[in-house]
């Protein structure tokens, strides 16, 4: 019989119990023993629900106090020097590495954090030094295995594979070939596997997501030698690939001396025939058929058809699984009490997905069982209902898209012409100063928003509160002497949610939290249908702000690509299509802002880079449509209207072409922490439009010195002509307090003044 298993379950808890326990522990309000207890309870609950759902093997090692890659670094003894102590690493070491506290209790820089493949999860980047030694240190995995066995579960420990682990890390000090480290790393893996075998483990899951990337030849070769060297470990090895297709690594992955291979058939269904051809039939084939990264219910009948094909060839060696770890799904749909029945009937969170996996495996052997027939019939009904639902399909949106022409995604004149016309209208000084949009979100603002949402104050009082805040922000900016003002974004809790709530085609869960990093979770909105904008979303706030000042007020919108990337997307249409619909909705808002007298409009795209696919060949396609979609949202304006965009990261390598292709009149970016170094990339490339390189870091309360800002701007002027330079912070100011905000902006404005006057 086909076996049902899971690659990993979300650890955060259906009520974010882990987040709450961690934060209480860090604040000193929870004892370590209580924290450990909270972790044990969550693991026990998650194993139990997976066992009860009908999984034959439950994953162990998917739990982490902060991040699974960090746990792995501790396990293999990869603790950077600044955190190392004489004793073995413990929970303190782990949190120090994550949060930047040195072994002596001083503040130091934390381990770097970066995106886990193309998900919105972030892992802590391992740091490797040349000649580094590894040794088995942190034993959490073995303890959890014992814990699960004691609770009566059949377990499958999850271990990050050696090559993916090295791939994800960075070299420190001397630059060297990370593959050199294998000689000392592999013995630790052998030790881990031996120990698991002694604990009675039959199968270990070795995660090698790097197999879905474009790998250099020496890394491919290393896969062969590594798994040859590990093949004698006394347990069975299931090698897992996910987040994409194996493509050119398929032959390699199929031939490695392991006992089973997991492939992602949600992201890459087209690879199945090749896997069936290449994988020896004595190996287990685990197929990921339930999407681990989204919230839609699986089409059970269609999936079952595929599984039957595989079963014909693979028989009992077919395993059924989610495409990847369920870490990227919210925990439990049962918790959602405010979603309407129709929408709810389309959804499945991690708990429900586990049920789907178990049901599919069972349906292969006993399709006639009553509950299975019922479930399959219900799935048919749900899929049909969704396909034809009026809520999803809005003919007007489809019709409008067919009328979109190339010229809709192009400004009428080239940048140089526009820039001159805009300058005639705006008459801005050299070194124009501005901010990225948000001003401090005080507790009063939050309280007012909350009260309005809960119906404790009415629209009139709420509007009065927000207007008072806008007036305050405008006056503060005038007093500071900024050139281009913003309204401050007081009415927004979140830059995607705020717009999603006003667009048709969007829904919001109450408890659909997904871990982003450490204790931080995000609750992505759900794009369920065709998107349109029933009414203006920001115009009244912007109009009011502009009425208070003679200086230009910059309208502030979230761009189509970011809206998409930070939401759960549809699966019945392409990401590109939803993005184009979003672009038209935003285009309408841009037009209305322009009509309301707003002559500068910023369309934020901080997630532009996040959409980048993992493989080079797909990246080019993505970049092309993403830039075009941005232009579609931005190009409906007169030449004299100035379009800004903002991105808050500093990695533009390889994507500068498309940044230029977006053709925003001004782009503001994060640069202060890189000491303007990243601007070099823009200069080498001869970026054609204007740039506002961030002159101070908004992540810390530190107030920059005027001289320091002047120095950074002079440095910027060496690579970008002064006529195309703007002066602004790295990002929005919503997490900062007022006093430091005012002091920092005062320094920034003074720096611009000195540069203008050539002091
Ligand atoms: N306009 C937004 C703000 O200032 C931009 C946020 C972001 O880049 N993530 O808050
Ligand atoms: Zn930003």
UniProtKB/TrEMBL annotation:
Binding site for 5-methyltetrahydropteroyltri-L-glutamate: 16-19, 115, 520-521, 566, 610
Record key words, sorted: Amino-acid biosynthesis, Metal-binding, Methionine biosynthesis, Methyltransferase, Repeat, Transferase, Zinc
UniProt cofactor note: Binds 1 zinc ion per subunit.
Domain Cobalamin-independent methionine synthase MetE N-terminal residues, every copy: 4-313
Pfam families: Meth_synt_1, Meth_synt_2
Superkingdom classification of source: Bacteria
Molecular function as annotated in GO: methyltransferase activity
Database matches in HAMAP family: Meth_synth
Family as reported in the entry's similarity comment: Belongs to the vitamin-B12 independent methionine synthase family.
Function: Catalyzes the transfer of a methyl group from 5-methyltetrahydrofolate to homocysteine resulting in methionine formation.
Name the UniProt record assigns to this protein: 5-methyltetrahydropteroyltriglutamate--homocysteine methyltransferase
Originating species: Halopseudomonas salina
Lineage of the species this protein comes from: Bacteria, Pseudomonadati, Pseudomonadota, Gammaproteobacteria, Pseudomonadales
Gene (UniProt): metE
